[in-house]
User: What shape does this take?
Amino acid sequence: MTESVKILYTGKTHTSGGREGAARSDDGRLDIKLSSPGSAGAGTNPEQLFGAAWSACFIGAMKKAAAKQNIVLPEDVAVDAEVDLAMNDDGYFLRARLNVNLPGVPREAAEAVVAGAHQTCPYSKMSRGNIDVAIRIV
Assistant: This one.
């Protein structure tokens, strides 16, 4: 059976030099230096980029989930992401925590919005079953 897929957008980047290199998008909007976590390098690192991308996507998913549930989100909704680069006997792996701030939203409503977002956010889907994720409403 063939699955019908509608491509909404394709992000294109070129990265060279690995963690001590640079990355640039084809449209030039992203043009950054990279450096290893904890190093004195001048750039950002993949874990920070992943956290920023996931947070932005998750906020979008929360907005959609809130609209479906007739819940009004505040303008200052925010997500603080923490992405760990870790290592054990099997090698490197990631862990993540999303700390969601929904000021003024009742706890039960916030939990419903976050649960809905975690089910639909593409980054949450990608991570599910692959990395340990904790989501907390702060």
About this structure: The chain has a mean pLDDT of 96. The helical segments are 46-68, 107-120, 122-127. Residues 71 and 109 are 7 Å apart (CA to CA). The beta strands are 13-16, 22-25, 31-33, 78-88, 91-101, 132-137.
